[in-house]
Amino acid sequence: MPSNESLAREILGHGTYLCVRADGGDVRQAGAAIPALAARLGLRSEFEPGETPPIESIAFLRRREAVPGDLADEDVLHANWVIHVASKAAEPVAEFCGEVARLLAPVARIRMLRGLRRPRNYTGAAMNNWAYGHQVVQQPGAAMPNAFLVPMSKTADWWRKDWMERHTYFLPRYDDQGRMVNEGHALVTAAGIPCLLRRTYKHALEPAPAGEYDFVTYFECADADVPTFHEVCAGLRDVRRNPEWQFVREGPTWHGRRVASWEELFAP
Ligand code: HEM
């Protein structure tokens, strides 16, 4: 049996989505020091990513709507605002999260979805060229205002599989006559490649402990491409087209609007 020791362990970066839910106080006022904190930690806004999207970054997302998933998670489902913080190093993310928790604890509930960026495991040269070579990079918030947060876990049956078997779920499957039996993850999502910005964080532990997610996935797109996002998700969830999803348990899908600053989160 191929050993799962072969899976990539390297850490490329750290990130957290802070899901903030109003709890009776003035959140805007309580968090007034957040922009200065972000500046001190050298976090650049993702709203204006420039030529090369920042690695040390911050993003502010304002709720539009949210839909429950298989896993109940009221704090994500009802989050009014989401803040994303990312860095190559663990310390700035931890410091930012600790400080925001301290500032907002008296007025809000905060659920932190933490993750690591790791190298891809199932992507050889051709998959890299196909699935990532033409992917859209982060665009200004005005061009791609929609943000979708989709945390999820995989079942114990998935984690029992060796990496070679897991790998097979990302490609189409064919019968002995060469007829495609199902599309699998990569082909079923093909329409999203040119229009969805994708980001996936993995939990430090695989599988993640109870109450936390194995994966925190995130997407951005233009208004015109929101239907494509939903089509791509519907394709992934159709287990006849993508058998991988029989092993997936999703948290809520939270849809927000990207805004430029802390203050804009609260604009009327
Ligand atoms: C938009 C087009 C998309 C493409 C082309 C795509 C392609 C891929 C590929 C090639 C991998 C394997 C990465 C590796 O080598 O480790 C992957 C992993 C993953 N994708 Fe997607 N994906 C897309 C959209 C989505 C969406 C919409 C979701 C969730 C709603 C999603 C969730 C995930 C997760 C959780 C993993 C990690 C799975 C694991 O390691 O077990 N992807 N994707």
Observed structural traits:
Alpha-Beta Plaits; 9 helices; two-stranded antiparallel ribbon; 268 residues; ten-stranded mixed β-sheet; binds protoporphyrin IX containing FE; globular; alpha+beta
Give a concise summary.
25% of the residues lie in helices and 29% in strands. It is α+β, with helices and mostly antiparallel strands and 268 residues long.
Instruction: Report the total helices.
Output: 9
Q: Indicate the overall shape.
A: globular
> Which regions contain 5 or more consecutive residues with pLDDT less than 50?
none
What about the largest sheet?
A: 10 strands, mixed
Overall structural domain count = 1
Structural class based on helices, strands and sheet pairing? alpha+beta
CATH class: Alpha Beta
| Rounded mean pLDDT score | 97
CATH architecture: 2-Layer Sandwich
Give the bound compounds: protoporphyrin IX containing FE
Radius of gyration: 19 Å
**What is the H-and-E element order?**
EHHEEHEHEHEHHEEHEEHEE
Identify the quaternary structure here: single chain
Q: Could you give the distance between the termini? A: 58 Å
Strand content: 25-35%
The strand count comes to: 12
What is the percent of helical residues?
A: 10-25%
In CATH, the topology is named Alpha-Beta Plaits
